[in-house]
Structure formats: C-alpha cells, structure tokens
C-alpha cells in the first residue's frame, strides 16, 4: 500500500525531521516554528530544538518565532568575484541607472559593487569614494571620475578597507548616494555582515549618506549574518533579480520604498 504524505510525516525519525526543516530553510530562507510544528505534526518545542541544533551547525540563525538561513556570502572575496558574474552585471546596470551627474557616490566593497563601478556612466562628473581597490581599478583611466580611495586594513573576506582609519575617513564625507555591500538582507532582521569591523564601517556609511542603495543576488535575500548593520527601512533602493517571487517582493516592498527588479 502506498503511504500518504500524512503517513510519511507521522512516521518521521528525528534526523528526517531535521533534514526536512533544513530543506525548507534553504527553499524559503525564513521558517516559523509554529508552521513547521503544524506541518510535521510535532510540538513547537521539538521544532525549536531542531532549529537550535541547525544553528549550532552554522546553517541558520535563530530569530523570534523561528529561524533564518545563514547567507552564503561568508566566502573569500576572490571566490565571490568569480560567482554569478552575468547576474551581477545585470544588477549593476540597473543600479547605475539611478546615478545622476555631479553626485558624490560612496561605493562599498563587494563583488556586485565592483560590477557597479564598471557600469557607472562616463563623463558624468562623478566623485566616487570607495574602500574597494577592485572598484577603484575599474574606474581608473575613464573620463569623468574623481576617485578617492579609502585607506585602512584590508581583510580577505571583505576585500576592502576596514578599521579605524577607514572609519574616520568615511565619517568626514557626505555622499549623495551610497551603494552599500550587504552580506544578508531580511525585511525583519535588516542588513547584516559577517565581520564586526566591516559591519561598523557599513553603519558609518549609512549614517553619512543621503540615500542608500543595495543590489543583491537572490540567494542573499531572506538570510542572516552575525553582525547587524541597519534596519531594512534604511535602504532607499533595493535592486533584486527577476526570480524573486511575488510573495517575497511584497515583503520587501513593505519595508523599502523602491524595490527594483532587474531583467536579464
């Protein structure tokens, strides 16, 4: 006799339950303990125990009522630079479209922001302040750019200047627009980063800038990272890919005024 879905759920072993919860996390990014308990026909206490174990293993971050998937961005910058190059280029073109002539642009480190540097328009009389040597290299020998490279200690993961020197320099400028690098973004948990110094610098960037924009590949949406940067409502423009579901887009639009979907 063929087992029904309910029969399969009722007979789950603990390790099977944990696997299903992890699959749901990877598919949805955020899970709620109450919903999982109802679906798996078990107690919320049992679900919370599984979520705690998954968090201990580094798969997720516990949040109120459930858990968030840990962002896949905790890789070295050299690895990230070679990933999803075409997708990041599409995001970069869309992001660069909001830039206006004679603006002061603050460009944070990150592989997508390096693509934005390459997509910025020539001859727009832009001042670009960046802590990313890679972004700086994309702008050299191009017309219409005044480039200011922020100094400081460069970490392997961030591939951009951090620390006290960089922080002091950021605090002394007033950019019109900041393209902020984000390791993770969630409507409830906001923008997050993997390193404490990087998060501190990003917070200073947000505080200094008139407007903040983030361009983000889909796998980093509805995910978490250890260090908080800013609430989601601090982001004025959020550029996302076309595969973002209508449900997710509605959640993003509830906290961000301008959610812009790129077309490949």
TrEMBL record:
Domain of life: Bacteria
GO molecular function annotation: DNA-binding transcription factor activity
Database matches in Gene3D superfamilies: 3.40.50.1360, Winged helix-like DNA-binding domain superfamily/Winged helix DNA-binding domain
Pfam family, one: DeoRC
SMART domains per the UniProt record, alphabetical: DeoRC, HTH_DEOR
Domain HTH deoR-type, residue spans: 14-69
Keywords assigned: Repressor, Transcription, Transcription regulation
Name of this protein: Glycerol-3-phosphate regulon repressor
Organism: Paraburkholderia domus
């Amino acid at each position: 006799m063929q087992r029904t879905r309910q029969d399969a759920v009722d007979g789950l072993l603990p390790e099977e339950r944990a696997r299903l919860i992890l699959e749901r996390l990877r598919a949805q990014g955020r899970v709620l303990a109450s919903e999982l308990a109802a679906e798996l026909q078990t107690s919320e206490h049992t679900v919370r125990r599984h979520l705690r174990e998954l968090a201990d293993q580094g798969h997720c971050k516990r949040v109120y009522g459930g858990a968030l998937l840990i962002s896949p961005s905790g890789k070295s910058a050299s690895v990230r630079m070679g990933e999803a190059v075409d997708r990041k280029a599409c995001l970069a073109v869309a992001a660069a479209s909001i830039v206006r002539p004679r603006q002061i642009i603050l460009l944070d480190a990150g592989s997508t922001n390096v693509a934005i540097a390459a997509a910025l328009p020539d001859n727009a009389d832009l001042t670009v302040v960046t802590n990313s040597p890679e972004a700086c290299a994309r702008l050299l020998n191009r017309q219409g750019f005044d480039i200011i490279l922020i100094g400081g200690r460069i970490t392997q993961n961030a591939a951009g200047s951090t620390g006290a020197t960089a922080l002091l320099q950021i605090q002394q400028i007033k950019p019109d627009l900041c393209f902020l690098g984000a390791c993770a973004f969630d409507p409830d948990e906001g923008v997050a980063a993997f390193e404490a110094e990087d998060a501190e610098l990003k917070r200073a960037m947000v505080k200094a800038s008139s407007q903040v924009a983030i361009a983000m590949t889909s796998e980093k949406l509805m995910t978490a990272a250890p260090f908080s940067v800013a609430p989601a409502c601090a982001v004025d423009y959020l550029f996302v890919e076309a595969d973002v579901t209508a449900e997710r887009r509605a959640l993003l639009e509830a906290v961000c005024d301008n959610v812009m979907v790129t077309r490949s």
